[in-house]
Amino acid sequence: MSSRLHLFVCTSCRAKGDPTSPRPGRVLFERLSSEHAAWARRLGVTIEPTECLSVCPRPCGIALSAPEKWTYVFGDVKPGRDEAAVVECATLYARSANGHLPREERPLVLRQGILARVPPRS
Question: What one-character-per-residue DSSP string does 28-57 give?
Answer without folding.
Answer: HHHHHHHHTHHHHHHHTEEEEEES--S-TT
